[in-house]
Amino acid sequence: MKYAFIRAHARRFKVGRMCAVLGVSRSGYYEWRDRPLSRRARANLHLLQTIRRVHAEAREAYGAYKTWRVLRARGVACGRHRVARLRRDHGIEAKRQRRFRVIARQHYTAIPMAPNLVAQRFSVERPNRVWMGDSTFISTRVGWLFLAVLIDLYSRKVVGWAMGAQHSQELAATAWRMAAEQRRPPPGLIHHTDQGALYRASEYRSGVESSGARLSMSAKGNPYDNAVVESFFSTLKNEMVHHRTFDTREQARAAIFEYIEVFYNRQRAHAALDYRSPVEHELENHDTVSTRPENRG
């Protein structure tokens, strides 16, 4: 194991120094290095290369378990503990730092402007039955960039989104129009949000209801009711925002657009979807709606 560590890090550190630190001889290391690889070692090397490829494709966001599930989905025969060991031995770590946790706060309970039609039932059988929306903010050197999204509960796909320098009603309205134009949901769609000002505005509510959708709102102070969107925001910030600094809002817009439309919707494995991406989930279940990315906001 020590020899394998030395070989893996030979380009970064001097071999002699590593041998001294690890208490092995240089001659012993070179003899081991030049010895023909065993069948098991060759298989591990091949698997390691595949693990590195998945790690890079996932933008270093997956842990050992999700990496193993993706490998199995691709037909790679390997054990979960073997994948974890190879990642650990070769310093392959997810850059994710913070896990999503819902923090419940005690607030007075106000009567919502719309009934809660979801009630924490986060599974539906077909697309365009329940969309969940919310907004967040991303820091840049010139100020906040606000992001509003709508997520289809069926596939966890971000079906509508908008970005802007102002946390305004128009931000939410732009995300709604994008989703409605591209997905064309049937009457009866449940549009679920919290009781934030963006979604309580009469203009916004009347625009949603005029399309035949039904408004649904979380109880005030109950973040569990909108946990799917909160989880998406946590994922976005852990995998992309927390690991970089944006000089301008335009730079942040471009990065978030690419994350949502290229990576999250089309590539990122989702545990709730049996480790498929939202687009793969819709395609495999023959329920997809043809969409094309648009640069909104």
Q: Which key phrases capture this entry?
A:
alpha/beta, elongated, 43% helix, 2 domains, Nucleotidyltransferase, domain 5, 5-stranded mixed β-sheet, disordered C terminus, single chain, 297 residues
Characterise this structure:
This protein has about 300 residues and is an alpha/beta fold. It folds into two domains: about 1-90, no CATH class; about 130-285, 2-Layer Sandwich (Nucleotidyltransferase, domain 5). Helix content is about 45%, strand content about 10%. It contains twelve helices and five strands. It has helices at about 1-10, 15-20, 25-35, 40-55, 65-75, 80-90, 170-185, 195-200, 200-210, 225-240, 250-265, 280-285; strands spanning about 130-140, 145-150, 155-165, 190-195, 215. Strands 3-2-1-4-5 form a five-stranded mixed β-sheet, sandwiched between helices. Strand 2 (about 145-150) and strand 3 (about 155-165) form a beta hairpin. Helix 1 packs antiparallel against helix 2 and helix 5 (about 65-75) packs across helix 6 (about 80-90). The radius of gyration is 24 Å and the shape is elongated. The chain starts with a helix and ends in a 13-residue tail after the last helix. The relative contact order is 0.13.
How would you sum up this structure in a few lines?
The protein has helices at 2-8, 15-22, 26-34, 39-57, 64-73, 80-89, 169-183, 197-200, 202-210, 227-239, 249-264, 278-284; strands at residues 130-140, 143-152, 157-164, 190-193, 214-217. It is an alpha/beta fold and 297 residues long. The chain is elongated.
